[in-house]
From TrEMBL:
Residues 6-195 form the SGNH hydrolase-type esterase domain. Gene3D superfamilies: SGNH hydrolase. It comes from the Bacteria. Pfam families: Lipase_GDSL_2. InterPro entries: SGNH_hydro, SGNH_hydro_sf. This is Lipolytic enzyme, G-D-S-L. GO terms for molecular function: hydrolase activity, acting on ester bonds.
Length: 212
C-alpha cells in the first residue's frame, strides 16, 4: 500500500478558523483533508502539519523550529519509506513580519524541493513523487489579521509562480485556491467543508501523479 506524507502548516494540521488569538483547536481525523485524501486513495498516511510553519523562516515569536527546511529533513528521516509527498506551505511566509515577496516565498518552496529531491532523500525512500499544493490566498480580516498585513496580495501572486516551479522540478501541482477559500471568520484557516473539498482534489491529483 502506498505511503503518503503530508507536510504543511496549520491547514495541514487541521486547525479550524480561530475565534481569538492564541487558542488551540484541531478538527478530528474524520474532517482533516490529509486523512480524507488518504482514505479516498486507500493509502497509508503520515501527517506532518505544524501550525505556524513556514517554508524558510525561523519565526521570531514562535521559534526557530517553524523553519520548514529543518522540519522537512526531520520528517523525511523520521518516517518511511514513503511513496508520495505533498507540500502545502507559503501562507505563514506571507506574514508581515517576514517582508517576503511572492518570489521570495517561491524560493523557499524551491529549497524544500531541493531537500526532498536530493539524492540522499530519494535514495533513503527508494524514490518518491511530490505534489506541490499552492494554498489559497488569505483574507486580511478576523482575530489574526494584524499578522497578515499585505499577505493577500502576496498570496494572489503565488499560484503562477509555484505552477512554473512545479513544472521545472517535474512535480505535480494543485492550486487549492481554485477549489476552496479560507474562512471569513479568521481569513486564514479552512472550514470543515473546505477540508472535504480539498481532499477530493488532492486525491485526484495524487491518483493522476501515480498513473503518470
Amino acid at each position: 500500500m502506498p505511503v503518503l506524507l503530508c507536510f504543511g502548516d496549520s491547514n495541514t494540521h487541521g486547525t479550524p478558523p480561530m475565534r481569538m488569538q492564541g487558542e488551540y483547536r484541531r478538527f478530528d481525523a474524520a474532517a482533516r483533508w490529509p486523512v480524507l485524501a488518504a482514505k479516498a486513495l486507500a493509502w497509508d498516511l503520515v501527517e506532518e502539519g505544524l501550525p505556524g510553519r513556514t517554508a524558510q523562516f525561523a519565526d521570531p515569536v514562535m521559534g526557530g523550529h517553524m523553519d520548514g527546511r529543518e522540519g522537512l529533513k526531520i520528517a523525511l528521516q523520521s518516517h518511511g519509506p514513503i511513496d508520495f509527498l505533498t507540500i502545502m506551505l507559503g501562507t505563514n511566509d506571507a506574514k508581515a513580519r517576514y517582508g517576503a515577496s511572492a518570489e521570495l516565498i517561491t524560493g523557499g518552496i524551491a529549497a524544500l524541493l531541493d531537500i526532498a529531491q536530493s539524492t540522499e532523500m530519494q535514495d533513503r525512500h527508494g524514490g518518491f513523487r511530490i505534489l506541490l499544493i499552492c494554498p489559497p490566498p488569505v483574507l486580511e480580516q478576523g482575530p489574526i489579521m494584524d499578522q497578515f498585513y499585505g499577505a493577500r496580495a502576496r498570496g494572489l501572486a503565488l499560484p503562477p509562480l509555484l505552477a512554473d516551479l512545479a513544472r521545472a522540478r517535474r512535480c505535480g501541482f494543485l492550486d487549492a485556491g481554485t477549489l476552496i477559500k479560507v474562512s471569513p471568520q479568521d481569513g486564514v484557516h479552512f472550514e470543515a467543508e473546505s477540508h472535504a473539498t480539498l481532499a477530493q482534489g488532492v486525491a485526484q491529483a495524487l491518483a493522476d501523479l501515480a498513473s503518470g
